[in-house]
Amino acid sequence: MNYPPNDGRLEVRLISRQALAQYMSFRGHTVRSLARKVNRSSSLIGHLRSGKRHTCSPEVARAIEKALDAPSGSLFVAKVYHVASNPSRERVA
Questions:
Q1: What is the pTM of this model?
Q2: Residues facing residue 13 across a β-bridge
Q3: Which domain holds residue 29?
Q4: In a domain, 51, yes or no
Q5: Nearest-angstrom CA–CA distance, 6 and 21
Q6: What is the per-residue pLDDT across 38-88, written as a single tens digit (0 to 9) for each?
Q7: Residue 80, class by beta-carbon neighbours within 10 Å (0-12 exposed, 13-18 middle, 19+ buried)?
């Protein structure tokens, strides 16, 4: 997955919990087996799969896609939120 330059806050969101569940099933992974393969907690994987959680770090997103042999960017999308350099001048619309 290619990520834009880090000039703001990066958020990596799961595109579809159903797609994650289908990839896991197709590749023969349970929540626990995928968690072991990507070296993360089973609660993180379970929350992503159930929809309780929608975001994770770029490293975790990359590891999950690699472990499931999914094309880069097929399960997660990166979005940068620009942060003002002077917080007192930041506007809220």
A1: 0.77
A2: 55, 77
A3: 14-89
A4: yes
A5: 30
A6: 999 999 999 999 999 999 999 999 999 999 999 999 999 987 766 655 555
A7: middle
Q: Who contacts 90 (Cβ-Cβ below 8 Å, separation ≥6)?
A: 83, 84
Bridge partners (DSSP) of residue 10 are 80
Place of tokens 């834009």: 4
Q: Are 58 and 12 a contacting pair, CB within 8 Å?
A: yes
> What is the CATH classification number for the domain harbouring 68?
1.10.260.40
Quote helix, strand, coil % in the chain, to nearest 5.
45, 15, 40
Question: Which pLDDT does position 88 carry in this prediction?
Answer: 53
Q: How many domains does the chain have?
A: 1
Task: Provide CB contacts within 8 A for 21, sequence distance 6+.
Answer: 49
